[in-house]
Amino acid sequence: MKSSRAPLCLVYDASGQYSPNVLFGNEYWLGSLNACHDLQLKQYYDQVSPFPTTFFVAKINLTVDGDHLPMTRSMLVGQCMPLSCTNKEVQSLLQAAEFAAANRAAAAGIRATAETLYVRPVPGPYNVLEDFKMHIIGAVIILVSLWMSAASLYEGHLERRYRAEQQQDLELANNNQKSPASDTSCNESTSDEDSKNSLKRERCGVWSEIMLSFSILSNGRAILSTRRPNDGALTCLHGMRFLSVLWVIMVHTYLTIFYIADNKQMRVVTERNFLYQSVGNASYCVDTFFFIGGLLVTVLFLRSEDKKTKRRTNKTPSNDKDLNKNINGYTNSALSVSVISEQSFYEDILDKPKSDAITRRELSRMTRSFLVLLSYRLVRLTPAYAFVIGINELALRYTHNHTVFEPAIFDHITCERYWWRNVLYINNLFPQRDMCMVWSWYMANDTQFYVIGIILLLISVKHVKFATVSLVLLLVSSWVTTIYISVWYHYKARIQEPFEMFDPLYDKPWSRVGPYLVGMMVGWYLHKTKCQVKIPYWLVVVGWPTSLAIIGSLIFGMVDGYFEVWPTAFYISIGHTGWGVALAWVAIACCCGYGGLVNSLLSYNGFLPLSRLTYCAYLVHPTIMMYTTFLLDGPLHLQNSIVITLYAGYAVLAFLASFAISLAFEAPAVRLLKIASGGGGSKKVR
């Protein structure tokens, strides 16, 4: 052993040892997992371990009398050990060391104990390549990738042929000759829609269009297009959506680094900063998504109603295009956009009867229309959502197997058991501990609000007053319910614990529906006025400061870091609706020409493609954070500069991953739905 002292020092050096700042939140004596594995590589070191090594992580409760350590600390201790050691053997060694340390402390007059709670090897026994779910996900990725490649090659061929024919037609036209008919399997597209969407090929038959729906070329152009929609009135929503997702990513970055920092007390220092309220009170950023969702579902609904009325009046065939185009510039416009099928439910409803009563036949048709609209939304959103759920479970299972930290969330367990709640969009109705992808509570709420919104809009077809009263009663009842629950639990809102009432209130639809209903009101108003509102000068002068004051007070109003019971009740109930009211002014002012620099920022063309990617970016960014952060072999040192740097990287990675997922799943789903509704192929299938 003496001759091998230097190599054994390497093993000792890779193991966790006492390090300072325990009182400032350092709970990690981890050593280095990478060093433990790397020191066995003879080709890189003159001296290596005389035996194969592996790494273990033990969780130890350390208790010292109050004069030295105010509270029990749970320490994670890393140990580089011989490969032949087992968990029980390592735990026995640690218990012997704990007994000896307690005796030395007692001899010094200090009462101290240490208790090993568990020992686990890193990496663990899990092999991702043997996981059946990995085989399924891998097969899906390979199949979709091959489909995308084949579709892209085929579309590239069609585009080259189309350009050649166009050039030939141009030359013939210059020679005053008629263009010869082209005997191909596709029909030349001459519609205005194609030119607007920059379709660079011929319109093909249904089966060809089904294949081409996965093309990277056309889907990529559609996603990355910065061309504004024709009306341009609602482009400010793109900026709202994109900036709100950046806000969400920033908050989750802070929470992730808080968890693995070796100076956790720095979180308390950070929370004292006035600007940190933008993190602690960031729940309002999700209210922006709800507001946009309610606004758009109402505008789309009313536009479809107007088109149906015009068709009924003119008695001419309809040639309506995609209902989402003038709002989003692209049907796949991402987060919180409650899309209505381009063949509106009015295709299934006959002209309004003269009687105000709803007949059984009409009720049946309205029910069928409701199911069609709901199915359209689910089919559009679920493929990308389900894929991210699968990727998330595999990634976090792999991470848990290879991390030296304790998992912050247990998606490797909950997603395996409860994934079906997510795809049914009911996961927000269950406890947080049982949720798969806890951040996906937004998806469940938005879908539930979509159901409520569609029902109210269907009722409004014949009973506008009843629908309006129902909306107001629903809004007031949400306030009353939230206030009652908050007071019942004696809840006091605190900057330090933004998720303290997650299960009773935070993710529940009865406390979150306010902004969505406000968005519906704004959507109705903008549609009825056609965004042509002359706002008095004095109202503009009052409206902007008032709106900004509401936003500022909701984010930065918790000056003392907490609210008492009754202020909290009103803050978390009416506050969410107040956020929607503030955004209502911003949306109306920007859409009606009174937005100034704010509208110029929110309607910036560069936000359009990023806005289309927000849905998948929201879904995938926590998985990226957990995977990259928890595979470190040591903690991070919390500083705002580190948070900002990581935040920028996470945002870029999230949108790059979102682009890939949108190309593979979301954009093809939208195009396939368009084909299914009769708008994607030629009239004559060849």
TrEMBL record:
Transmembrane segments: 134-154, 242-261, 281-302, 370-391, 439-459, 466-489, 509-526, 538-559, 579-601, 613-632, 644-665
Compositional bias (Polar residues): 171-189
Residue stretches making up the Nose resistant-to-fluoxetine protein N-terminal domain: 11-94
Region feature Disordered, mapped onto this chain: 171-197
Record-linked InterPro entries: Acyl_transf_3_dom (IPR002656), Nose-resist-to-fluoxetine_N (IPR006621), O2_lipid_transport_reg (IPR052728)
Superkingdom of origin: Eukaryota
Keywords, in A-Z order: Membrane, Transmembrane, Transmembrane helix
Residues in the signal sequence: none
MF (Gene Ontology): acyltransferase activity, transferring groups other than amino-acyl groups
Residue ranges of every copy of the Acyltransferase domain listed in the record: 409-662
Pfam family, one: NRF
Name of the protein in its database record: Nose resistant-to-fluoxetine protein N-terminal domain-containing protein
UniProt organism field: Leptosia nina
